[in-house]
Amino acid sequence: QVQLAESGGGLVRDGGSLSLSCEASESITSFFSMAWYRQAPGKQRELVAAIFSSGPTTYGDSVKGRFTISRDNAYNSVYLQMNSLEPEDTGVYYCNAVRFSGPSRTDYWGQGTQVTVSS
């Protein structure tokens, strides 16, 4: 069973920075993509950023230009650098990995890490 372990959340002031890490229990090169999602209280989980095994990245509109996703295959890890944080970025951030077996898709999730941005 794939395990994803997030770390790096915390409390930061408006305009500050945080860096999140996600370490997988196996090689991340086996995944089609890895991503960060977040869920704010009372809202649906939304995509923050994703990075594909082939290299491209994609970002949610609200974080473009402020957040950067990266990966280090040697450490089976994906990172999210968050700059210019805003109170609206507050939420639980989840690491996600996607694997395909033929047409069958499996999503793996971490337990989440809390990010709180104070105004």
Task: Describe the protein's architecture and organization.
With 119 residues, this protein is mostly beta strands. 0% of the residues lie in helices and 56% in strands. The chain has no helices and eleven strands. It has strands spanning 4-7, 10-13, 18-24, 33-39, 46-52, 57-59, 67-72, 77-82, 91-101, 104-109, 113-118. The strands form two sheets. Strands 2, 4, 5, 6, 9, 10 and 11 form a seven-stranded mixed sheet that branches. Strand 9 and strand 10 form a beta hairpin. The mean pLDDT is 97.
| Rounded mean pLDDT score | 97
What string, H for helix and E for strand, traces the elements in order? Answer: EEEEEEEEEEE
Shape, principal axes of CA atoms: globular
C-alpha-based Rg, rounded:
14 Å
Strand content: over 45%
| Tally of DSSP helical segments | 0
Q: Major beta sheet, specifics?
A: 7 strands, mixed
Task: Give the low-confidence spans.
Answer: none
Q: Helix amount, in percent?
A: under 10%
> Whole-Å distance between the termini?
40 Å
What class do helices, strands and sheet pairing give? mainly beta
Beta strand count:
11
